[in-house]
Amino acid sequence: MTLFAAILVSFAGLVAGGAHFEAKRQVSQLRDTYDFVIVGGGTCGLTVADRLTEAFPNKTVLVIEYGRVEYAPGAFDPPQTVWGGSNPNQASTWRFQSLPNPNVNDKVATVLAGKVVGGSSAVNGMYFDRPSRFDHDAWDRAGSPEFDASKIKWNWDSIFPFFKKSVTFHEPQPEFVKKYGYTWDTAAFGNSTPIHSVLPPFLWGDHAIVREAWKEMGIPVLRECAGGDKTGLCWIPISEHPLTARRSHAGLGHYADVNATRPNYDLLVQHQVTKVTYPNGLEEGPPTVEVRSLADNRMFNVTPKAEVILSAGAIFTPSILHRSGIGPASVLRDAGIPLVLDLPGVGSNFQDHSGPTITWNYTLPETLPDPTPDKMLDTAFAAQALKDFDAIPARGPYTLGMASSGIYLSMATLSPNGATTIVNKIRNLVASNNSASYLPPDYRSSPSMIAGYNAQLLTLAGFFANPSAPSLEVPWHTGLFLRLFLLHPLSRGTVRLNKADPLEQPIIDYRSSSNPIDMDIDILHTRYMRKIINTPTFQKLGAVETGPGPLAQTDEQLAEFVKDSYTLSFMHPCCTAAMLPENKGGVVGPDLKVHGANGLRVVDMSVLPLLPSAHLSALAYAVGEKAADIIIQEWS
């Protein structure tokens, strides 16, 4: 049997729930007691489960997951032929839609998240970048002075070892290094984890076009962007196996690859955690976990000996807390839920990456280098692509994720004067005590939420003034457009229970651009990035800007363009159970324990206090690794 065939057999066993990958499907298969219960079998949850079962062979861990075990194809795997389309075999997803946003022409955000063992690591675009060191240092500042005395830190030096631990990076083969000019620094990576990342052995022909144009704009080329320094042009690894080019995700690396040797590791699929309860009061933890079977709606309880770890994601973790009576008193009262613990930050502080899209056409497209994505419509080319993908090691178009390059630029670099104006606006907003007017109505009267928001604004003002801290990301793969990511929005949204059916998807309100300074930043980003049209490389191709278009020059015209072309969500929701002091609207402390709730911890992207300068996949693994280390040290 070939290595490729053996791997496919493993995948088939995983899908079928074979002997080595047996997931529980009913309560009768569970043990009488567990030490740890983890709610959510996604990126963070499975990372923690893997590390706890490894460290404590005599302690039992139960992971409860809404979805089921499925095969998870990559972002561009067969049978797809249209680059950027959707794979009909994609693993199951949640599809969330927000309320209409009046600030950007009533647009609605669409957010996909994994409804599968492996969570969003099984369905995302496989883009595997990391935040800058200034993101993590900002987290510490946002929690100061209250968290200063904590031995647990989340600054860059404290989390970098867990980034290294969380992934095994595989160097590209010499022929592709020569062909594409790949660079990297192996010192930024570890090599001991079955979560894999690579620089792909194929790029579309026009990939070099935009990279060359960015160089002509004076953007510095960085050798490596995973080591904390990230202002410039980066090569971005993708999360896939180096031999098969199959998606590498938590369901494989932190469950299937280890479960056969962990008799203390149980996974219960197709069950929903409805809430946690404290029958004897918040001081008498850990709480009891109430669980609903999706097969027959039967309810049962699990009470662990050690603790409960919520890892249901930035949208569902606050929903579980809300149903448990933990959250803003006014919100719970309105939903008819008895208050157990008043924490205004639960479901608040919602953030996501968003931004406009610049577009163009080439009037001399015949000069574009081959191959371009439309080649996939050629029968012979597509057949060869499939053959290359089935080779060991795999190569060709099907080895691609959604992007392999990106730029990260600071506001001070884009426009020193513009950055100064924006920084002063932010600081004046705080000094004038007017910041609350831009917050969601249901927590404008909360002193802790206002104090926390002001602390975040001042932290971001310092961030924007830093010439080494990115405010703009532009990822690149191929095509005639560039998406401009607003990395650090000032606007804040909410995730609230659906009162009509609290067990269903919650109500999401993005509120993008509710703080008008965000529009100033989007305009600044747009003015800078449209300069790419005038680079020598683009002019050789006869590039003509179609969006915003040459007639859009004033701030008012550019604001209308931003609203028209805005993407409300680049699918990086976070921050709804923030790691901040309670008097600043925080939900968890540096140890990730919920303020005031004994035996309850949160480990997912909801704990981020601020949105980082990165997609969230690599960060989720690192947070899971660091959280597991914190828990292991506490219980050793």
From TrEMBL:
Its cofactor is FAD. Residues 114-137, 313-327 form the Glucose-methanol-choline oxidoreductase N-terminal domain. Pfam families: GMC_oxred_C, GMC_oxred_N. PROSITE patterns: GMC_OXRED_1, GMC_OXRED_2. Residues 1-17 form the signal peptide. The keyword Signal applies. The keyword rRNA-binding does not apply. FAD binds at V116, V273. GO terms for molecular function: flavin adenine dinucleotide binding; oxidoreductase activity, acting on CH-OH group of donors. Keywords: FAD, Flavoprotein, Signal. GO terms for biological process: secondary metabolite biosynthetic process. The active site is at H572 (proton donor), H615 (proton acceptor). InterPro entries: FAD/NAD-bd_sf, GMC_OxRdtase, GMC_OxRdtase_N, GMC_OxRtase_C. PANTHER family: DEHYDROGENASE XPTC-RELATED, GLUCOSE-METHANOL-CHOLINE GMC OXIDOREDUCTASE. Belongs to the GMC oxidoreductase family. This is GMC oxidoreductase-like protein. It comes from Immersiella caudata.
